[in-house]
Amino acid sequence: MARLRRVLIANRGEIAVRVIRTLREMDITSIAVFSEPDRTALHVLMADEAYPIGAGPSRDSYLNLDRVIETAKRVRADAIHPGYGFFAENEAFARACAAAGIVFIGPRPETIAALGDKLAARSAARAAGLPLVPGSEGPVESLDEAKVLGREIGFPLMLKAVAGGGGKGMRIVGSETELEAAWSLTRGESQAAFGDDRVFIERAIQRPRHIEAQILADSSGRVVCLGERECSVQRRHQKLLEETPSPALDPAQRASLGEAACRIAAHVGYLNAGTVEFIADERGEYYFLEVNTRLQVEHPVTEMVTGIDLVREQILIAEGESLLGGGDPPAPRGWSMEARIIAEDPAMNFMPSAGRIERVRLPQGPGVRNDAGIYRGYEVPVFYDSLLSKLVVWGADREQARRRLLRALDEFVLEGVRNNIAFHRWLAAHPEFAAGRLSTRFLDEHFQSSMLAPGAEALDLALITAALHARGESQRVALPNAPGDVRSAWRWADRSSGRSR
Amino acid sequence: MARLRRVLIANRGEIAVRVIRTLREMDITSIAVFSEPDRTALHVLMADEAYPIGAGPSRDSYLNLDRVIETAKRVRADAIHPGYGFFAENEAFARACAAAGIVFIGPRPETIAALGDKLAARSAARAAGLPLVPGSEGPVESLDEAKVLGREIGFPLMLKAVAGGGGKGMRIVGSETELEAAWSLTRGESQAAFGDDRVFIERAIQRPRHIEAQILADSSGRVVCLGERECSVQRRHQKLLEETPSPALDPAQRASLGEAACRIAAHVGYLNAGTVEFIADERGEYYFLEVNTRLQVEHPVTEMVTGIDLVREQILIAEGESLLGGGDPPAPRGWSMEARIIAEDPAMNFMPSAGRIERVRLPQGPGVRNDAGIYRGYEVPVFYDSLLSKLVVWGADREQARRRLLRALDEFVLEGVRNNIAFHRWLAAHPEFAAGRLSTRFLDEHFQSSMLAPGAEALDLALITAALHARGESQRVALPNAPGDVRSAWRWADRSSGRSR
Amino acid sequence: MKFWISLEGRDAEVEFRSEADKVWIEVDGKTLEADFHPLPDGEVYSLLVNGHSHEVRVSTVRDQLEVSLRGITFPVEVRNPIEKVLKGLTRASGAGTGETIVAPMPGVVVAYRVKPGDLVVPGQAVVVVEAMKMQNELMARHGGVVTEVLAAERASVAAGQPLLKLKAAPMPDAAKPAVA
Amino acid sequence: MKFWISLEGRDAEVEFRSEADKVWIEVDGKTLEADFHPLPDGEVYSLLVNGHSHEVRVSTVRDQLEVSLRGITFPVEVRNPIEKVLKGLTRASGAGTGETIVAPMPGVVVAYRVKPGDLVVPGQAVVVVEAMKMQNELMARHGGVVTEVLAAERASVAAGQPLLKLKAAPMPDAAKPAVA
To answer: Which of B406, C147, C148, C180 is deepest in the core (most CB within 10 A)?
Structure first.
């Protein structure tokens, strides 16, 4: 296949910026697309070229398939990088690219389709000999069948929507009596959410760890694994902090997990970069979960320890080159962690936040990498997800990486939009985290938002600051609130809701 | 020796910030000192503690030995990190620390003294069996002796002040006839500049490369070399871009240069981090130049390929620990380059520039490290050197590092102070640089400032921009210049001087 | 100068003095001294308190004064003594006169959990607003009886836009806010 | 709208039209179209010219308009046609009336290379100013006869401070500036 010259990025925010960087290093013209509110987004400023594709809501722009394809054709893009989210795992989009004679930088459409279906993925995994969480072979047809399975597998178990994903459409069932209610609820929700009421059953794992393997596969059929990432620290099924390697695996487990990931990739004839997700129980036994047929948000930690540019590999593979230039994966060096810096308000139960970045000073120096989608003065739009930046650190070992993360969080200045920097500071300083004892229930077990309340020193500083402010404008001090005053009402409401969790 | 708890950094700017970062990662209290104009400098904002030490001029603050030592004692610092410059290679300061019971994080005072004297250093190198540029054994007593040597060594040769350094007090002499004038001139200048008129003679090397070896030595007497750096690209003897490894050395030469560096370090009983500088001729033969008894500005490139935090090693060594935890130096991985981002005006013959940082967006993403001393709104003071930031990149090989450097320079936004970003873009894109054909004469041979003149597209953009500005304030357009108008006069003068070089 | 400053439920009388780059404040009997210097990008100060270096920011979001430091932002109120008294009065009557729930950020009203006439207890979730692809419950602080619904479901709402009005209803004291 | 814009020795008449976020300029017969949007931190614009993305900045340093893009900064002058004419006149006489050498940045006067009465040729170095630990020679553009020395040696001088006055002296045309 010919060398790519012009690549359109069908995405926005930090991942679009991330892809632009590698394109520039490869001397390939980077083409951004943007919605109206994104006219001055960082990916527009940084791309070689940028073209409008519609209004703010994703469906009118970044998820407007015809508009994106039409634009790519008009500007003579010879390939499209989908980033993650939006069209990244969309079979129809991949097919539309092919139909338009544009290279889709990712797996083949049929692979996306096959692995997008949870049950098809499960049976592929079974066929490839991957360990699966004990559960139903396929959709469970009736409540009675569900009860029988329940007795076999044992409670608690998981009711999962076949069409679900990302934590949506799943429910833990503690006992056979709970099963009856859960059965109809889950099917109803699944029907409503995904237009598909099929559900299946899995054993519920008590304190699961989320561990995933990064794979690359090229058109010659060669598959390699570039190690694993642990992403156990999550809130509402959203990953918050990822690291590699996983502190949970010993070398034997690591090797076996990597081989398992390569097996399923080879089995489905995978192409390009992908991630095989597993859950591991407390004994370190791992079970296949699903395959993400795209670049992951957390891919940088793998880049930090391997020195490999995954986006570059994606592009070379799409050009028909052999992955890693035909060489073997390098031995990973050291440890890496990524903290997702998100626009959310810890005092309001981590509700997403928007607004203008009034002041920003990204952490810098040894072992620190920022993948940011923001800059000073940038208005964070309300239409898209609330990931502002990814703070990635590298250390010679886990402890150096953790201390470096703390250091970087300490020097991180980000004001104007509420964010979770203080939360990450709490997390990185937590003894259980330092000990690597993680699970997807970490926050349930250890976190309360009161832990982010300012300490005595902070209050003294706030007093000084408030006094300086008052001195500055003693004449402009606000009048006492009117009865039933709007502003204070909602503030108190929000604060109490935040504190009450 | 006991663990260090409170370390004072007797420096400012990016290197003070650099040291603070490692101290924080080691959980050591970082103590900054600052001159009046540096009250809001980044190292003051980032340190745990910060104390004033006097007025703007260095001699009144950062070079005020008594004030610095007195402050360190008053705030109960148990060690001082000198950074580079200021007191970094000052024997008296190191002794003053010892006298005050404060650990000096660097070599022993006598080592600093011994290696600070060029001739003593040369004889130490000779004794340790290092290759030296053919020249006089010691100071040359008379013009006649100089002539004799000239015939032995051959012209062109170098007349060097014994007390000189950093390019000062040296003169190339092309022939015996030139020697007479040069002899008295050099001695006179040397007397005036250093209060010491002793000079010595070396063979002049035509297109020298500057290659230096990074060493670490601990109190057990163990010495290791962490590879070399090539710093050949210089202007007025100021390094502009450094890289590791050096494209000039083959593995055998690299090993032999490293061993030579360790030999002289061992010979003088070196302690802590240091750099042994060599010059190499076009055949790859290298000769000992001098030893820098401090951390170098360009140390980050070594950190990028080894994964070692050199400041951390300095501190552990100062605590009496064995270097690298007793382990062997890791095999270097990949390639790293550092571009010094300097406040200077390419249109005014690279005259240093000062002022306010109006807008800054540091490059980020994979393989990019910034060691910056600035932030938006910061006033660059006129008292200190003009290094604003160090842009450091890593790549799997030299070409990836070079392309990444170009990419990072492309996304670097730095406005309000004239700087050399465009110059570095020219450099990194130059075919001779890409080919690794470097020498300290690189700029003399390849650069003219007209090469930084804006191209046709830039002029079109400038027209559009100027028009937008005029539209915005068509009423505020400046009146025609008065005769002999001040502003335009100096501007033209400066521009012509810039262009004329 | 004298101020009343309330933050994080702490209500303090602050005596304030400043001179050049130095500021002294007296609060709860203790004296705090700081060297301060303004920084760019808003009302930001570099503070040196006994040599300890801090960056702090003051901002006003929808009339609410906030202080940010080390990634934590929390509301502060500054009043002079007379206002303090008035405030006390209005506060007392505040809970008695009802409250308005507003959208804290731009988004879409997903669903109301209550309808006019419903009795709402303090801390009860009353409306769900979707913003940035996440659903968020807004709660009433004082509670009361729902009098008005001010925005339709599925409607896009701006930050600060009123969604729901509550009329005060008698509450057990326990339900009264600890803060204030 | 119409302007005369001079930059890098190029002197162009520019016809200018704008509408919402779009701007069109006509210069030397060709038309340039751009989509523009202001960015923070000064007068900064994001330009899309045929889809190509650029960030440009305009600033005024000591009355001199400058444009910065991709790390290059260069002076620009914008005038309307009438001014253009006047300018022409004053320019012509400019060289004839002498010049003043000023310090381009804060520093210390190290040494004067000339004294009152000396004849200075165009481009000749007249004074050395040390700034940021480097010595820098300032040159005269038109040259002439030194009339006044305005700052003492070793004196600290501010940016823009006059150092030396020259009275015009007859010059061969060759010495006249090519630019302007």
So the answer is: B406
pLDDT tens, residue by residue, C130-149: 777 666 777 777 788 898 88
Q: Does A239 touch chain B (CB under 8 A)?
A: no
Strand partners, A141: none
Is A364 within 8 Å of B371 when comparing Cβ atoms? yes
Q: What is the DSSP letter of B37?
A: G
Mutation for B interface: A25, A30, A389, most B CBs within 10 A: A25
Contact across the interface for D7 and B462, Cβ inside 8 Å: yes
Q: Do B366 and A369 touch (CB under 8 A)?
A: yes
Residue with tokens 């409008």: A52
Query: What is the Cα–Cα distance from D1 to A20, expressed in whole angstroms?
Result: 38
pLDDT at A281 over 60: yes
- Strand (E) or helix (H) holding D165: strand D162-167
Amino acid code (one letter) for B172? I
Contacts with A406 from chain B: Cβ below 8 Å: 24-25
The ipTM assigned to this model is 0.85
Report DSSP state, residue D173. G
Chains contacting A with at least 3 CB pairs below 8 Å? B, C, D
DSSP H or E stretch at residue A398? helix A398-411
The full length of chain C comes to 180
| Contact between D44 and D34 (Cβ < 8 Å) | no
pLDDT of residue A298 exceeding 70: yes
Hey, what are C2's tokens? 């004298």
State the Cα–Cα distance between residues B53 and B86, nearest whole angstrom.
Answer: 14
- The residues with which A215 forms a beta bridge, in sequence order, are A225, A274
User: What amino acid is encoded at B246 in this protein?
Assistant: S
The three state secondary structure string of A13-68 is HHHHHHHHHHHHHCCCEEEEEECHHHCCCHHHHHCCEEEECCCCCHHHCCCCHHHH
User: Nearest chain C Cα to A416, which residue?
Assistant: C59
CA distance B120 to chain C (A): 43
Binned at pLDDT 50, 70 and 90, residue C49 comes out as very high
User: Is B377 within 8 Å of chain C by CB?
Assistant: yes
pTM equals 0.85
Minimum Cα–Cα distance from B461: chain D residue: D56
How many CA atoms are closer than 13 Å to the CA of D74, on its beta-carbon side? 26
The answer to whether A12 is a known catalytic residue is no
> Do A261 and A276 touch, CB atoms closer than 8 A?
yes
pLDDT attached to residue C138: 79
Sign of CA pseudo-dihedral D65, D67, D73, D76: negative
- Nearest-Cα distance to chain B for A19, in Å, is 10
Three-state secondary structure readout of D81-143: HHHHHHHHHHHHHHHHHCEEEECCCCEEEEEECCCCCCEECCCCEEEEEEECCEEEEEECCCC
State the nearest Cα–Cα gap between A376 and chain D, in angstroms. Answer: 7
Instruction: Report the C-alpha dihedral over residues B169, B122, B385, D149, rounded to 10 degrees.
Output: -10
The catalytic position among A108, A122, A198, A294 is A294
- DSSP states of C92-136: HHHHHT-EEEE-SSSEEEEEES--TT-EE-TT-EEEEEEETTEEE
What is the Cα–Cα distance from B388 to D134, expressed in whole angstroms?
Answer: 16
- Min mean pLDDT across A401-405, A474-478, B362-366, B493-497 is at B493-497
Give the per-residue pLDDT at C89: 47
**Residues of chain A contacting C79 with CB distance shorter than 8 Å:** 477, 480
Q: Taking all residues of chain C, what is their mean pLDDT, rounded to a whole number? A: 80
Structure tokens at C53: 């270096």
Is the CB of C37 less than 8 angstroms away from the CB of B40? yes
**Beta-carbon separation of C73 and A500 below 8 A:** no
